[in-house]
Write a structure and sequence with these properties.
The complex is a heterodimer of chains A (112) and B (113). With 112 residues, chain A is mainly β. Chain A is 0% helix and 55% strand. Chain B has 113 residues and is mostly beta strands. In chain B, strands 2, 4, 5, 6, 9, 10 and 11 form a seven-stranded mixed sheet that branches. A four-stranded antiparallel sheet of chain B has the order 1-3-8-7, with no helix packed on it. In chain B, strand 5 and strand 6 (53-56) form a beta hairpin. Classes of the chains: A mainly beta (112), B mainly beta (113).
């Protein structure tokens, strides 16, 4: 069974600060995804990481992937209130028919 | 391009009642997924279709849940009878094919009282 662990599960940070969310997974995966979910809303795709060493950036968010360590990070730079949301990482592989296996999510609150 | 459509958006039922959810995937998408997201958790796969065939339903509680995808397009997910622990958001997602990125619908929030 493909397991995905995120930490921290809850994160309160001040505007302007930097922080990193970690995502570990248990077995080889084909792809790693990061999603954002606002309260009462569906999942918004942020990044898809395909290969070892992959790095993608969008605005204040940067995601990276280390397939050897089975670790992905989502780095937040100079946080702003609009980034407050829950962030999920998910992985898929051919053994699971490419269905997504999600972590429990990291609930981020950015305060003034 | 229209996104994944789901209805209803909200549903409140009493335990032991039945309920059905509908999903219309993005046009041309062969793969369709139903996920269950319990409050405070990540989504969990219930069932995956490839066209009108089932790829994986290993986590579907088959004593009460059923799903079908007629003609390989729209899909319905049914719960009968519902239990309190079925309270969750039910997300439908579709992808062009098995290996392509999934796109999620807005979800149906079910409350069982």
């Amino acid at each position: 069974e493909l397991k995905v662990e995120q930490n921290p599960l809850f994160l309160s940070m001040q505007e302007g600060k930097n922080y990193t969310i970690y995502c570990n997974y248990s077995t080889t995966s084909d792809r790693l995804y990061w999603y954002r979910q606002d309260p009462g809303k569906s999942l918004e795709s942020l990044f898809v990481l395909l290969s070892n060493g992959a790095v993608k950036q969008e605005g204040r968010l940067m995601a990276s992937l280390d397939t050897k360590a089975r670790l992905s990070t989502l780095h937040i730079t100079a946080a702003v209130h609009d980034l407050s949301a829950t962030y999920f990482c998910a992985v898929d592989n051919s053994n699971s028919g490419y269905a997504l296996n999600f972590g429990k999510g990291t609930s981020l609150l950015v305060t003034p | 391009e229209a996104g994944v459509a789901q209805s209803p958006r909200y549903k409140i039922i009493e335990k032991r009642q039945s309920v059905a959810f509908w999903c219309n995937p993005i046009s041309g998408h062969a793969t369709l997924y139903w996920y269950q997201q319990i409050l405070g958790q990540g989504p969990k796969l219930l069932i995956q279709f490839q066209n009108n065939g089932v790829v994986d339903d290993s986590q579907l509680p088959k004593d009460r849940f059923s799903a079908e995808r007629l003609k390989g397009v729209d899909s319905t997910l049914k719960i009968q009878p519902a239990k309190l622990e079925d309270s969750a958001v039910y997300l439908c997602a579709s992808s062009r094919d098995l290996t392509y990125e999934q796109y999620f619908g807005p979800g149906t929030r079910l409350t069982v009282t």
